[in-house]
Amino acid sequence: MTDVNIKVEVVYATVAEQKIVPLVLADQSTVQDAVLASGFQDYPDIEVGVTPVGIYAERVQYDTVLRDGDRVEIYRSLLLDPMEARRARAESQASQKRPKKPNAIKAAK
After folding, report:
1. Full-model pTM
2. What is the pLDDT of residues 35-64, one digit of tens each?
3. N or C: which end of the chain has fewer CB within 10 A?
């Protein structure tokens, strides 16, 4: 019987950097196997089995079986709710576009 291996990448990005760890794992390895083999479980904000993960931007569970060429992504918690960020951006842009009131002295002349 021939041992079959698959090549995958595990990626994790912080505010300061993006790390990509290429791995060769046994066929039928799971997302959890890849995360543990990558060493990212040592990061303080990653809790294996809890921190959200995905394959090519699609959320998956830790027991998902990997295929050759998969890119496992470990997601960080959002610092700001997307709706709040959008609202703040819209308010900022609206305040910049408001016409200034004409100077009362110039209007009187």
Report:
1. 0.70
2. 999 999 888 888 999 999 999 999 999 999
3. N
